[in-house]
Amino acid sequence: xVRREFLIASLLQNRPAPAVAGSTLVHEHxxxxxxxxxxxxxxxxAEVFRIARPKLEELKPLGxxxxxxxxxxxxxxxxxxxxxxxxxxxxxxxxxxxxYGAAKRAGVPDYARTETARExxxxxxxxxxxxxxxxKPRFIKTGVNGFPLEELDRKLVEAAALTSLETGLTIASHxxxxxxxxxAQLEILASLKCPASKFVWVHAQSEKDHGYHERAARAGAWxxxxxxxxxxxxxxxxxxxxxxxxxxxxxxxxSQDAGWYHVGEPGGGSYRGYTYLYTTFLPLLPPETWKxxxxxxxxxxxxx
Length: 304
Fold this sequence. Notes:
Oligomer: single chain
Strand content: 15-25%
Number of strands: 10
CATH topology: TIM Barrel
Shape: globular
Distance between the termini: 39 Å
CATH class: Alpha Beta
Largest sheet: 6 strands, parallel
CATH superfamily: Metal-dependent hydrolases
Number of domains: 1
Number of helices: 11
């Protein structure tokens, strides 16, 4: 570990903190309530706005124009707050539709256990058509709790695929269970004739076998290495360079999974900013990869 940290420090010497014009962060958060649908916690929207705004404004000099806010319905999604922050900062903040099945099912409402995949898809498509508090969701957020997939996991993925087929929205799936769980989800999409290109394997960095990353990308899926931080930068760099060496940089996404005003904690707890990827991680990578990772790939994966 000491040698890895020394290598990273050496690589960073005399490397500029890059600004990547027109860039997008594909997986970040403003607010999260992990108590889920049973939460009785209250929060002050004005307080969250006050804390989040300067963190978002730090991104503007770095070229960021858009952030996908991945907090799902049932775990604190607040489209109204995102619109307030977007108007104040000029950073586009995209919200989502869908249901998140991970986090020990904390965000799963009772109706999701009884309705069919098609009934759930109808709900999500209605949010896309009608908006969430006046804001149109721009992607589908779901999640599976592990491998093998349980019945509820499979239903949520089926509903996401059906919604994608109707709306054209891309699915970002928090994937517990590593490569086997990712492949199982891709099999579900294939059975419904939903293109693999509409699937983002979220938290792919948790899988240590690069063979799974390669197979998913060659199948047409997007492989997202997120959660980038000081502790993980070396491993994330290895993941990106592996994909580059295999000619698969064009199927690779990166982000930090940062931010997070934690509902229920005093002052929202520790709110991690969004600049580390630009100031510290990108200089670890060849400059010719920066635009691909932060401009081209997010647009190809999610539109915009």
